[in-house]
Automatic annotation (TrEMBL):
NCBIfam families: GTPase_YqeH. GO terms for molecular function: GTP binding. It comes from the Bacteria. It comes from Paenibacillus pabuli. This is CP-type G domain-containing protein. Residues 66-229 form the CP-type G domain.
Length: 375
């Protein structure tokens, strides 16, 4: 084994094909010298992915991600788009179809374990199909799954076999949607144990892909997780992420409100019932986030005086690093079953039959919208 003066080794990683080097752990192909005798010889990155389930953790901004997506449209591929059911409208890739062209799209809807156990799954599936269609997405199939409980993945793998043919498979999705869990399952089911990963890195960019070679010479390609700035998960501190992202099934919290009442969700956002008959509102929010009810006329003062204390998280210091709040007003039509959706935080179902005028205050840039009720 010859080693040039620059630290490169005249051997390629058997996992990703990159030239191995022993000098800089920050550069592609790094391998500790003591690992050179291992079989197979793989770089540190491939070793970590293989042994610690560390799939691609590199994220990209929207422009880079869309540039990557546009290349898929030129290929003959099956696209798996994985989304987060808890944050469906915040994690679905708007306009995906125009980038992937005529390639079939398989929609994998993760985190079904977060919905209440009495959920009607046929209705959820129909809701997902309708919402995806409204986003212009033509899906060949929809799979409801839970990475946490390992449910639905057998069905997903079955459909990959059905629709793949002799195509490559591209897996696309945002951050925190469970994409790496899916990729690791695909690795176990489809790849050669000794050479299960090919990491393709493009110098000078933040793009990073993991290629899982298949027996027929094709590959499953994990694209980077796209960071969407309109999701709460992208603006809160790391310690507050656990409070807003539920780990257990949601427990619907029902509030009977008169007009002129407000609900605070910690200090993250607030919901105002501005006008309408007394009615019930059901909050689907992480149980780790306290909900505080007050009068609308006192809401501004309460936020000013008690942010970071009664209204927390965030702390007052962390709140200073978040965008100022923006007010969003919605008129709910009489007789409609609607959700007021706050991306990454959850949603409030408006149950009344008489209509209502409501408002949401949330950090500027966070996606807030009205949608047909999920449940």
């Amino acid at each position: 084994m010859t080693e040039p003066h620059n630290g490169n080794i005249a051997v390629r990683c058997s996992g990703c094909g990159v030239h191995l080097q022993t000098e800089n752990p920050e550069l592609p192909g790094f391998i500790p010298e003591k690992a050179l005798d291992r079989e197979p010889v793989i770089c540190q990155r491939c070793f970590r992915i293989k042994n610690y389930n560390e799939s691609s953790s590199v994220t990209v901004d929207q422009d880079e991600f869309l540039a990557l997506l546009s290349k898929i449209g030129d290929k003959d591929a099956l696209v798996i788009h994985i989304v987060d059911l808890f944050d469906f409208d915040g994690s679905i890739i708007s306009g995906l179809q125009r980038f992937v062209g005529n390639n079939p799209v398989l929609l994998a809807v993760n985190k079904t374990d977060l919905l209440p156990k009495v959920t009607n799954w046929n209705k959820v599936r129909n809701w997902v199909q309708k919402q995806a269609k409204e986003q212009g997405l033509r899906t060949v199939d929809v799979v409801l799954c839970s990475a946490k409980q390992n449910q639905g993945f057998d069905r997903l793998l079955e459909l990959v076999g059905t629709y793949r043919g002799d195509r490559d498979v591209y897996v696309v999705g945002g951050t925190n949607v469970g994409k790496s869990t899916l990729i690791n399952r695909l690795i176990r089911d489809y790849s050669d144990l000794e050479q299960e990963l090919t990491t393709s890195r493009y110098p000078g960019t933040t793009l990073d892909m993991v290629n899982i070679p298949l027996d027929d010479g094709k590959a499953i390609i994990d694209t980077p997780g796209i960071v969407y700035p309109w999701r709460f998960s992208e603006i809160v501190s790391r310690k507050d992420l656990a409070a807003i992202m539920p780990e257990k099934p949601l427990k619907p919290a029902v509030y009977q409100l008169n007009s002129g009442q407000t609900l605070f969700f910690g200090g993250m956002a607030r919901f105002d019932f501005v006008e309408g008959d007394r009615q019930s509102f059901t909050c689907f929010i992480s149980t780790a986030l306290d909900i505080h009810r007050t009068k609308l006329e006192r809401a501004d003062d309460l936020y000013r005086d008690h942010l970071g204390e009664l209204l927390s998280p965030p702390t007052r210091e962390d709140a200073a690093d978040m965008p100022e709040w923006t007010r969003h007003e919605f008129r709910i039509k009489r007789g409609s079953q609607s959700d007021v959706f706050i991306s990454g935080l959850g949603w409030i179902k408006v149950n009344g039959e008489n209509g209502a005028l409501v408002a949401v205050h949330a950090p500027k840039g966070i996606r807030v919208l009205i949608r047909p009720s999920l449940i």
